[in-house]
Specification:
about 250 residues; Alpha-Beta Plaits; 2 domains; 6-stranded antiparallel β-sheet; 9 helices; 6 strands; about 45% helix; globular
């Protein structure tokens, strides 16, 4: 029967940069049952970031980008000899367990989780060129911005309208019209937290440690790196990815 496992030997291209994107399954339903704040719940994003940090510790990617219930990893060393099935299945199951563990730590969510389906993520492998890496993350960051604009517009309308009415009002509206709508409601998206507009990044940041050589008694300087959760990401460009040695 081993010969029936026709996808088990499928591997990622050895000359490509590899991104793994993980998406929460039925998270809109999970959000309702756990009564997350709308359009953004800081506690939910904190849990997402902590779960993604565990993913970072386990697989040492170059960079992780998070928005909504989506996590994209830019891999460094490719795990599991590049086997696509293995990467997808282990990454998704690891994140599902990490997220569940983190959210179960919160008393206000623990009882509600008993009434929900098990939390799960799907996963896909995306091979990219160096130029494609920047394009990819710019695309996902633009999607984070669209989510921010649409989310604030929808939930602000829901304060006075039904779901159907709000959807009808928003139908085919351009982004400039949505900005006007929000300004009328005294909301300026430029003043919202950066993580809502641009997402959250996780990567290793350089830091300096001052010490003393025990033999010579001379002062020493050591450069090290630690995992850093960036809640104030800039707009992505080539410089950001090259400066941080992601490409």
């Amino acid at each position: 029967m081993k010969k029936c496992e026709i996808f088990s030997s499928l591997k990622v291209p050895c000359t490509s940069h590899i991104v793994v994107r993980l998406d929460g399954r039925n998270f809109s339903q999970l959000s309702r049952k756990l009564e997350f704040e709308k359009p953004y719940d800081p506690e939910f994003m904190r849990i997402m970031a902590e779960a993604a940090s565990l993913l970072f510790q386990e697989f040492s990617p170059k960079f992780i980008f998070i928005f909504s219930d989506e996590i994209s990893l830019l891999l460094g060393e490719i795990p599991f000899a590049g086997r696509v099935e293995k990467i997808d299945s282990v990454m998704a199951s690891f994140l599902s367990g990490a997220f569940t563990g983190k959210i179960m730590e919160q008393d206000e969510f623990r009882e509600k989780l008993k009434k929900t389906s098990p939390i799960s993520f799907d996963s896909r492998v995306i091979p990219l060129s160096s130029e494609g890496v920047v394009d990819y993350f710019q695309w996902r960051q633009m999607e984070a911005w669209r989510n921010c604009l649409n989310g604030y517009s929808y939930w602000k309308l829901r304060e006075e309208h039904s779901r159907e009415e709000a959807m009808a009002i928003l139908h085919k509206k351009k982004s400039s019209q949505l900005h006007d709508l929000l300004f009328q409601k005294d909301i300026n998206l430029a003043e919202t937290p950066a993580w809502q507009r641009r997402g959250v990044g996780i990567y290793k940041e350089k830091f300096t440690v001052q010490g003393l050589n025990p033999l010579t008694k001379e002062k020493t300087t050591t450069h090290r790196r630690k995992i850093f959760i960036d809640w104030e990401l800039p707009l992505f460009n080539d410089e950001f990815f090259k400066t941080n040695s992601f490409i």
